[in-house]
Amino acid sequence: MTNTTPLNVATRYFDALGRGDIPTMMGLLDTDVTWYQPGRNQFSGTHRGVDGVGRLLGSMMAVSEGTFGLTVEGTMMVNGDKVAVPVRFAGRRDGASMDMSGVDLLRVVDGKIVAVHLFSADGEAEDAFWGAP
To answer: Is residue 73 part of a domain?
Structure first.
């Protein structure tokens, strides 16, 4: 297995995220990455490019007062250039909290993550936590 297989890239991405190593995590994203954030909240929609994703994640950390976190909750599953990853994500802010399961679907091409599709177990609760657009 080489360092650029979809499973290896996804593993390095989530390992870096778990360590709080944002430069390594962001370095695994293609410069033109497309990030699909679910729901009907202030962060929902399509975010493009490393800079756009960086702004999104920075804003999510600000709103969650630095508490937003994500962990891998099960086995990563590969189908060609796609990796589905069961996750658990949580955060707190202003007396509100969120803790739920989800799935992150990464598309990896030439050793870089070119697309990220996120799925939440409870979209309404996630929308309530992040707030209206």
So the answer is: yes
